[in-house]
Design a protein that fits this description.
alpha+beta; 7-stranded beta/alpha barrel; Immunoglobulin-like; 6-stranded antiparallel sheet; 17 helices; 22% helix; globular
Length: 987
């Protein structure tokens, strides 16, 4: 039978005189509808996780069936086969990473057939990014990158017909406003998702507000985007799952005694009739599919063909149900034609709760070391993209190295990767994939730096274990070491550099031979005692570096000690005693007061403001139920559910004080598995808290979730603020939501929100902001208090599918995590985000460090480094990368939200990059901005009903210029928080 099936497919392919059609893939290819009926848009789809219970490759190839039966390659094989049989059939593909792998294995004949399906709108791409990304733990820079990657492949392979027109975020566990903004900035018409707080969904179902117009930005023009919630998750209707994974009966017609056509049609009509009562239009969208379905697509399509046939036959008997194959974009097209108004939405959809005891807020913090590793991957990616662009490295080897890292980072954005909600074996595979990609990309960086500096044979090694003060190149000696610093930002930045060293006497000089002040600081004892860490380097050399784009610093060991007035080494003494109960840590900008009796922080003075700030660590004991029932739900990878009150650690903290000229530190030993360094640098206006947590003990049988709290006297009035994916800030009110009254049975976890980059609280006079170095969960459970969750170790599964407890181990014991939180105390600014996003960006993209052994200091080849001095201070470089062999993608952002419009002339940069032509594109970089024509919908309450459909176009005139034109044509103006993206063709 399989032989004849294969022959049939071959005959279909051979019979196709394949010439890819033009202009038939748009809305012209959508099915015809009936204005007098309920139009049911049947959307065949398969949700294919890019890793979860199995690794990415295991899901693609179908191995490890004992874990889960899933094989993406066969899904795509059989779906294409079935689409070719009938022009009415449709299917949407979402995860470009899987499709890329599958398509690269196909014959030329099959590739032509697929191109035909795409050109006719029968195979439609939705979303289109490398993976279906999470929306809580991701940073906007990485989201944009992975859409660029996926959409670029689709464009280069299939042309304009492949460009998605809607977002399909059906499985992430809550939805961010910034993600909606990204869709709008890419020119998408709308987005659909399936998960929403159950209390909110119940209200929307009963009030016909399942679809809305989401204002995704308070700063950007034309930021509204249509947003729809699916009726019943993203699976097929109950009883109508025809997939081989399902147990529902097929539709049996003909002369069979078991003929069930009438019953199945009755049931389906009843379902869609009931469903239609929750939607405003006479169009409803019914997804047909689920996780890893359509492995034998013939079964699915054969039964859907029958369903369509027999439901529509009822129209002759008076039925008003009209059913057909469709796609989400065709569905949205029909809604756009209706000229009706829709409800408003302004905030986001966090936190997500699926039942009374299940707030999905644990994954904001789950697997903290992997969340940090993903940030490291982004740091390397942004740096390497810039370096190989500046060095003009265009070989296949360099393209491959960068492509591998792009793809690995695209996978890491997946909603079961960056979230930490995958099985442990899959987490390790993600780490392996990302590590190998980083190593490969670093080879690119090495080649580029050999071009961009005069150190032609430099090693340019990176040290991936600097977080535990280990670097292989300095393990035995840091004598004659060159530290090459790459600044990914547009503007010159001054930052402190730390390098693991032996306790010797060092001199640091810059490229001009000028000495740079430096000092050594001991590595905390808790780091030295880490298992499997070599203790050759027990100190860190610290110096301040100012870097424009690339700078080199030379380190040598002096044969004699430094003079005492030049440097204070390893001072284990109190710095100042105000009275018997206090000691202070102070520089020209900041004064920290500590309580000697407890060893903890007591007061902060900076920016002309003083506030009592007490920092503490605390433990939530994880609820340990024994099944998936709501009342017995455990705290797990997804869910945060504390059992009882928090335990604040109030025991006396042991401490040591290290007093340098430029860096001052208090090393705190909280208990056997929690320690911290509180640090201030001269000239840096923020306090650094470098925490170390683990192994979290579980010998009492309880899982634990560890938080740090900052308690003050601020009257914050139940309000605090968190960022949305590193961009705009959102107001959070304790126990409140925008649209509905939440079920606060779980009051602690129900007030947790994702903190990707920063959070703050304030009263009428003062404001405290916390910045973090990875995604974490955060809250303010009491006025004047901010809380961040740092680490989680649990002994029970929360019964939401992953099937194992979040109990990470390393070297036979619980995982140890280390990270940083930064604090700024200030007076309340007129606009709350004026300077803080610049600080946030510097924390997100610090200097990238490379190390070489040499006896001299190499200089930088300055004529290869473009000049960004024309950028105003608030204009940052978000992307500088090769778009193709002779094209560069440039993305700039106005980080300022203070209402200040910034303009600059891009011509000098265009000229330094050997530009011939430049044009503006959408945020993802793959569509000329002048082609933007995005559906505009109208909101309730405006009193305006248009007479014809309307569209959003670009809010400004796109730049399109070439080297023959006057420099005045190259002026770029950015509104607050605006991002603009350009493609530059060069010589």
């Amino acid at each position: 039978m399989k032989y004849f099936k294969g022959v049939l497919v071959l005959l279909v392919l051979v019979s196709l005189n394949i010439v890819v059609s033009e202009n038939v893939c748009g809305f012209e290819s959508c099915p015809k509808t009936n204005s007098n009926m309920i139009n049911v848009h049947l959307v065949p789809h398969s949700h294919d996780d890019v890793g979860w219970l199995k690794t990415v490759d295991q899901y693609y190839y179908g191995s490890n069936k004992n874990i889960q039966h899933a094989a993406v390659q066969y899904i795509l094989d059989t779906v294409v086969e079935e689409l070719l049989k009938d022009s009415k059939r449709r299917f949407i593909q979402v995860e470009t990473s899987f499709f890329f792998k599958w398509y690269s294995e196909q014959t030329e004949t099959m590739k032509k057939a697929v191109k035909q399906l795409v050109a006719e709108g029968r195979l439609e791409f939705a979303g289109g990014a490398w993976s279906m990304n999470d929306e809580a733990a991701v940073h906007y820079q990485s989201v944009i990158d992975q859409f660029n990657l996926g959409l670029k492949f689709l464009k280069n392979t299939f042309g304009a017909c492949a460009r998605p027109r809607i977002g399909w975020q059906i499985d992430p566990f809550g939805h961010s406003r910034e993600m909606a903004s990204i869709f709008a900035q890419m020119g998408y018409n709308g987005e659909f998702f399936a998960r929403m707080d159950y209390a909110e969904k119940n209200k929307r179902l009963s009030t016909m507000t399942m679809e809305m117009i989401w204002k995704s930005s308070v700063f950007l023009k034309n930021s509204e985007i249509f947003t729809g919630l699916l009726y019943r998750h993203y699976g097929s209707p109950p009883g109508f799952c025809f997939d081989i994974h399902c147990q529902d009966d097929p539709i049996i017609d003909g002369m069979s005694y078991d003929n069930n056509v009438n019953k199945r049609v009755d049931d389906f009509i009843a379902y869609v009739t009931s469903m239609s009562k929750s939607f405003r239009a006479n169009h409803i969208m019914v997804p047909m599919g689920d996780d890893f379905q359509y492995e034998d697509a013939e079964v699915n399509f054969k039964n859907m063909d029958k369903l369509i046939k027999y439901v529509n036959n009822r129209q002759s008997e008076g039925s008003k149900i009209n059913i057909f194959y469709s796609t989400p974009s065709c569905y949205l097209y029909e809604l756009h034609q209706l000229l009706q108004s829709w409800p408003n939405k302004t905030e986001d959809f966090f936190p997500y709760s699926s039942d009374t005891h299940s707030y999905w807020t644990g994954y904001f913090t789950s697997r903290p070391t992997q969340k940090r590793f993903e940030r490291d991957g982004n740091h390397i990616l942004q740096t390497v993209k810039q370096l190989i662009t500046l060095a003009n490295l265009t070989t296949a080897k360099h393209e491959k190295g960068l492509r591998n890292l792009r793809q690995a980072m695209g996978v890491m954005q997946h909603h079961d990767a960056i979230t930490g909600t995958e099985k442990q074996a899959v987490a390790q595979d993600y780490d392996r994939m990302l590590f190998n990609a980083i190593i490969g990309a670093e080879n690119n960086a090495r080649d580029a730096l050999r071009v961009l500096t005069n150190l032609n044979n430099g090693e340019f090694q990176s040290c991936l274990e600097l977080n535990i003060s280990v670097c292989a190149l300095t393990q035995t000696s840091a004598n004659n070491i060159v530290v090459t610093l790459v600044n990914p930002l547009a503007h010159t930045s001054s930052q402190y550099v730390r390098l693991p060293v032996r306790k010797e006497n060092y001199q640091v000089t810059d490229e001009n031979g000028r000495e740079v002040p430096s000092e050594t600081v001991p590595v905390p004892l808790e780091i030295l005692s880490l298992q499997h860490r070599s203790n050759d380097t027990q100190h860190e050399l610290v110096f301040k570096a100012s870097v424009k784009k690339i700078s080199n610093f030379y380190i040598r060991v002096l044969p004699f000690p430094r003079k005492k007035h030049d440097l204070l080494n390893d001072q284990t003494i109190p710095i100042a005693e105000n009275d018997a109960d206090e000691f202070t840590l102070e520089n020209s900008l900041i004064k920290l007061v500590f309580d000697k009796s407890t060893g903890g922080l007591k007061r902060v003075e900076m920016n002309g403001v003083s506030e009592n700030i007490h920092q503490s660590f605390a433990i939530y004991k994880g609820f340990r139920g024994n099944n998936g029932l709501s009342k017995n739900r455990s705290s797990g990878a997804y869910v945060f559910r504390p059992d009882g009150d928090i335990e604040v650690l109030n025991d006396k903290i042991e401490y040591s004080i290290y007093n340098g000229l430029n860096v001052k530190e208090v090393h705190q030993h909280v208990n056997k598995w929690i320690s911290q360094v509180v640090r201030i640098y001269e000239g840096v206006n923020r306090v650094e808290f470098e925490w170390l947590v683990g192994p979290i003990p579980t010998d009492d049988g309880d899982g634990k979730e560890i938080v740090t709290r900052f308690s003050t006297n601020l009257s914050s009035n139940g309000t605090f603020y968190t960022d949305s994916n590193g961009r705009e800030m959102l107001e959070r009110k304790r126990n409140q939501r925008e649209f509905f009254k939440p079920d606060m049975t779980e009051e602690i976890s129900g007030n947790y929100y994702p903190v990707t980059a920063q959070m703050y609280m304030q009263d009428e006079d003062k404001r405290i902001t916390l910045f973090n170095d990875r995604s974490q969960g955060g809250t303010s459970l009491e006025d004047g208090e901010l809380e961040l969750m740092l680490h989680r170790r649990l002994l029970n599964d929360d019964a939401f599918g992953v099937g194992e407890a979040l109990n990470e181990e390393q070297f036979g014991t619980g995982l140890i995590a280390r990270g940083k939180v930064f604090l700024i105390l200030n007076a309340v600014p007129k606009n709350p985000m004026c300077a803080e996003r610049l600080t946030q960006h510097e924390i997100h993209l610090p200097f990238c460090k490379f190390f070489s052994k040499t006896n001299s200091v190499p200089s930088v080849v300055q004529h290869l480094i473009p000049d960004f001095t024309d950028f105003p201070e608030s204009i940052e470089l978000l992307s500088l990368e090769a778009h193709s062999t002779n094209k560069i993608l440039l993305r700039v952002e106005n980080m300022n939200s203070c209402g200040s419009i910034k303009s600059f002339n891009i011509y000098p940069l265009f000229k330094s990059l050997r530009g011939q032509q430049i044009w503006e594109v959408t945020l993802d970089g793959n569509l000329p901005l002048r082609h933007i024509k995005r559906f505009k919908f109208h909101q309730d309450g405006t009193g305006f009903i248009p007479s014809s459909v309307s569209f959003f176009s670009t809010p400004h005139k796109p730049i399109e210029a070439n080297y023959t034109m006057d420099a005045s044509e190259f002026t770029v103006t950015l509104l607050p928080m605006q991002i603009r993206t350009f493609i530059l063709r060069h010589e």
